[in-house]
């Protein structure tokens, strides 16, 4: 079962500019900034739910393609789960469509996405939470 909202993913056109907005103007705290192949990210403490700022200039990546097609904005909602495989099986059994394979996300734990067309129009991520 879902344990609660883990983070909100936001695609940004300029990571430095977005950091200035979210940490300066809006007062969120920077938890960590990092990069993975084809992706730059920043994790922010917004006082309850983490914000995950995502940027990629590479139009072949999911975030780069999203930015090129839609521009910056809400990318996904992520929920914490204890057992990712059990939750995938449950949700697929309920008719949700898995989008992509299980992989390790920016938090260092397994993640998977579900297609927005089967989750009310919202790209939905599950994050296996350890703790």
How would you describe what is shown here?
The protein is α+β, with helices and mostly antiparallel strands. The chain has a single domain (2-128), classed as 2,3-Dihydroxybiphenyl 1,2-Dioxygenase, domain 1 (Roll), CATH 3.10.180.10. 23% of the residues lie in helices and 44% in strands. The protein is built from three helices and eight strands; from the N terminus they run βαβββαβαβββ. Strands 2-3-4-1-5-8-7-6 form an eight-stranded mixed sheet. β2 and β3 (39-45) form a beta hairpin. It is globular and about 40 Å long. The protein starts with a strand and ends with a strand.
CATH homologous superfamily (4th level) name? 2,3-Dihydroxybiphenyl 1,2-Dioxygenase, domain 1
Strand order of the largest sheet: 2-3-4-1-5-8-7-6
Q: How many individual domains? A: 1
Annotated CATH topology: 2,3-Dihydroxybiphenyl 1,2-Dioxygenase, domain 1
| Average predicted confidence as pLDDT | 96
Distance between the termini: 15 Å
Q: Under the CATH scheme, which class?
A: Alpha Beta
Taking pLDDT < 50 over at least 5 consecutive residues as the criterion, the unreliable ranges are none
β-strand number: 8
